[in-house]
Amino acid sequence: MADLLGSILSSMEKPPSVDDKEKKREKERKRHLEKLKAEDRKRKDDFRSKVEKKVSEFINDTSRTRLKFRPVDKIYRSIIHDVAEVAGATSFSFGEREEERYIIIFKKEYAPTDEELNAYRRGETWDPEEARVLAKQKADEKEEMRKQEERTQPSKVAPATDYMDKYKKIVGDESAVDGARNLTPNKQFGFVPSENKKDKRSVEETMNAIRAKKKQKTADTETTDSVPGSSLADS
């Protein structure tokens, strides 16, 4: 009997241990996570396909220059930006709060102006015709201010005669012009070029002449001092 009971118990499956239960739960979590990832990839792929279709229709439609998308999460905005770049268009995000941010795609040949972008950033609508009218008004106001400044500024008084005419007989008409034409500086500033010197002697010859003059002057002085009565004669 004991042997029979023992064989029956040994043939039965053992109850799962704690480790086995934890492993089973971990597998379930991983399977669920993979399912969520697959669903998320599918949603993003479907969203990208829809965006690509809309952008393609927009690019081929010559009557449209802007394409606005509804507010979406950051990850979906990145998909729109990527599709726009691939299509050769320009895209900008607008909206202060995260849940309000949306994207407008612009054709590159119709790039937005700074005024238009600033209007969208302020949450305002943009009317091209109204913008042209405002631009013309600003230009007219600027022109009117310029004319007003010209009217208020003192007029320039021209002299009755040219002061150069007063000295024309003295300096002539071409003296200053001729002087200005000679723009060649000396070879060494502060010294006169050798070709302009009147004294053509070398430095050594000049020094010898100076020494000779000093020597002659000293000899003349000594001769005068040696003559008797020269002082009385001078007085």
TrEMBL record:
Residues 1-46, 134-161, 178-235 are annotated as: Disordered. Residues 224-235 have a biased composition (Polar residues). Residues 45-108 form the R3H domain. It comes from the Eukaryota. SUPFAM superfamilies: R3H domain. Residues 16-25, 35-46, 134-153, 195-204 have a biased composition (Basic and acidic residues). InterPro entries: R3H_dom, R3H_dom_sf, R3H_sperm-antigen, SPAG7. It holds the Pfam family R3H. GO terms for molecular function: nucleic acid binding. This is Sperm-associated antigen 7. It comes from Holothuria leucospilota (Black long sea cucumber). The lineage of its organism: Eukaryota, Metazoa, Echinodermata, Eleutherozoa, Echinozoa.
